[in-house]
Design brief:
By secondary structure, the protein is mainly alpha-helical. It is 83% helix and 0% strand. The longest helix has 41 residues.
Length: 223
């Protein structure tokens, strides 16, 4: 009696695993490059004492470059738009960091960086080690996104420290969930474009860093 092995399934599964590993490898490699480039543009803004950009300039620049990146994500130009977006966002951090340095609060920048790194590594590491499907977070993330949009609108009228702390905390929770969800999508083959995956993870890292800076800055002033 001869046993027949379904080589078609083996080949299909093998190629799927190879594709997933390739997307993961490319995503984390590009993410490391964009974070380094973002840090470089932030350093340039700090050294040159760049003035803070208007919130409208930041919003238009961010969403404009994000839209461009999404449109070009399937071509080589997507890499250029990725560095344009992350470089721009890094530059916007320069004036923020300068503010803390001028107040003698440079240690808070380090704490925010450490907290951001820990959160990202913990969330990504959990999904990579467990391969758990995190798609169940989708509904909660959508509801939380609506709350955050309303909170951002309200922040133009309410500037109480407690409100900023709550809003920043919600941003951290949302971003952590987005990292879990995004990493799961890559691991399980739902996201096959490493440029989109990189930008998604970068935006969540950026949000966590800025939110931690807000919280640490406010609590330090309260002290």
């Amino acid at each position: 009696m001869r046993m027949r092995i379904d080589t078609d399934n083996l080949t299909g599964d093998g190629s799927s695993v190879l594709q997933t590993n390739r997307v993961l490898r490319n995503t984390y490699f590009l993410l490391s490059l964009t974070l380094a480039f973002s840090a470089l543009t932030a350093y340039f803004a700090v050294v040159t004492q760049a003035p803070p950009l208007s919130p409208w300039v930041i919003l238009i620049g961010f969403y404009g470059l994000l839209f461009l990146n999404n449109a070009l994500s399937n071509s080589g130009w997507g890499l250029l738009s990725t560095f344009a977006l992350t470089g721009f966002m890094g530059y916007t951090l320069g004036p923020i960091i300068n503010f803390y340095l001028a107040q003698g609060l440079g240690d808070l920048v380090f704490y925010a960086f450490a907290g951001t790194a820990f959160t990202f590594l913990a969330c990504s590491g959990y999904v990579l080690s467990t391969k758990r499907d995190m798609s169940f977070l989708g509904g909660t993330m959508l509801a939380l996104f609506v709350v955050l949009v309303l909170g951002m609108i309200a922040s133009f009228f309410f500037h109480q420290p407690a409100f900023v702390i709550v809003l920043s905390s919600l941003f951290i929770v949302f971003s952590a969930m987005a990292i879990l969800y995004g990493t799961s999508e890559i691991v399980r083959g739902g996201e096959t474009n490493y440029i989109r995956a990189t930008v998604n993870l970068y935006v969540q890292i950026f949000n966590i860093f800025v939110s931690l800076l807000n919280i640490l800055g406010i609590t330090n002033r309260d002290d």
